[in-house]
Specification:
The chain is an alpha+beta fold. The chain contains two helices and 14 strands. The strands form two sheets. Strands 1, 3, 4, 6, 9, 12 and 14 form a seven-stranded antiparallel sheet that branches. Strands 2, 5, 7, 8, 10, 11 and 13 form a seven-stranded antiparallel sheet that branches.
Length: 270
C-alpha cells in the first residue's frame, strides 16, 4: 500500500513538471476570411491576443508570405518608407506586443525578407514595462533554418539582424529565433513587447547600407522589409520543483499516517 502511495507521488511530480512550449501570440498576416489574394491581409493576431503596429513613419502593404502555408492567401507584411540616408537610425520599423503572463522560457520566431535596397541591418529590441525598449542581450540567437536565395543571414545574441541579398529579386530567410535568458523580466509579464528597427551599418556607424549591394548609395527609403510567421512562444509556468516535492511528501506522509491508524483500529477490533 505504501509503495503504491509513493508511486502515485512520483507520478504527480513527473506530471506537474512536464510542460510544452506553446505559441502565446502569433501573426501570419493572412486574410481572416480567405480571399485568394496575396496583396490583402491583416495585422490582427492569428493566435492569442496582441498588437502589430508601425512606428517612426513607416507604411505597409501586404505581399507574398514565407513558405507555402496559406496557399493563395499566404500573405506577408511588407514595410517601407524608411528614414533618409544618414538619419534616424533605430527610429523606424515595427512593434509587436503580447502578454507572457503565466509563461517562462520566452522565445521569438520570425521569417524575414529584405529587398535589395532596404537597410541590411535591423535591431531587435524588447520591453518589460510596455514603453521603454532596449536592445536585447543575454539571450541566444539561432537561424535562419532556411536561407533560400539569400547570400547570408544572421542574428547576433545582441539582436542585430543582417540579411545580405544575393540579387535584387529576394526570398525569405526563414526560421530566425531569439531565446531570451531564463528568469528575465520578460517572463510572466503582461507588458512584454518587441521591436525590429532599421539601423546604420555598425562598421561605419553613420549610414545605412543596402541589403544587396552593401553600399550607402544603393540604399533607398522605398526599400521593403517583409515579415511573416511572427510568434511569441513560451512554456507554461509551474510551481517550483522544491515546493511540489514538499507538498507531495507531505501528502504521502498524511496518507501513510491515515493508513496506519486504520490498520491499528482494525487490529484492535479483532
Amino acid at each position: 500500500m505504501l509503495k503504491r502511495m509513493c508511486l502515485v507521488a512520483c507520478l504527480i511530480l513527473v506530471s506537474v513538471n512536464k510542460s510544452d512550449a506553446d505559441v502565446i501570440t502569433g501573426w501570419n498576416f493572412n486574410s481572416v476570411i480567405p480571399d485568394a489574394t496575396l496583396t490583402t491581409g491583416t495585422t490582427a493576431a492569428s493566435v492569442g491576443s496582441g498588437t502589430a503596429s508601425l512606428i517612426g513613419g513607416t507604411s505597409a502593404t501586404f505581399a507574398t508570405g514565407a513558405g507555402t502555408i496559406g496557399g493563395t492567401d499566404n500573405s506577408g507584411w511588407n514595410v517601407t518608407t524608411w528614414a533618409a540616408q544618414g538619419t534616424g537610425s533605430g527610429t523606424r520599423g515595427v512593434q509587436f506586443t503580447g502578454s507572457t503572463a503565466g509563461f517562462t522560457n520566452i522565445t521569438l520566431d520570425m521569417d524575414l525578407r529584405m529587398s535589395g535596397t532596404v537597410s541590411r541591418f535591423f535591431q531587435l529590441q524588447a520591453t518589460s514595462d510596455g514603453s521603454t525598449y532596449s536592445d536585447v542581450s543575454g539571450g541566444v540567437a539561432t537561424g535562419p533554418t532556411v536561407l533560400n536565395n539569400n547570400a547570408s543571414a544572421t542574428m547576433s545574441s545582441s539582436g542585430l539582424i543582417q540579411i545580405q541579398a544575393a540579387s535584387v529579386s529576394q526570398q525569405f530567410a526563414e526560421g530566425f529565433r531569439y531565446t531570451f535568458a531564463t528568469n528575465s523580466l520578460l517572463e510572466n509579464n503582461a507588458n512584454f513587447g518587441f521591436r525590429l528597427l532599421a539601423v546604420f551599418d555598425p562598421v561605419n556607424g553613420s549610414n545605412y547600407v543596402s541589403s544587396f549591394a552593401g553600399t550607402t548609395a544603393a540604399y533607398s527609403t522605398g526599400g521593403t522589409f517583409r515579415l511573416d510567421n511572427i510568434s511569441i512562444n513560451g512554456t507554461t509556468a509551474v510551481p517550483e520543483p522544491t515546493s511540489i516535492a514538499l507538498l507531495s511528501v507531505a501528502g504521502v506522509a498524511g496518507l501513510a499516517a491515515s493508513y496506519r491508524r486504520r490498520k491499528a483500529k482494525k487490529s484492535a477490533a479483532e
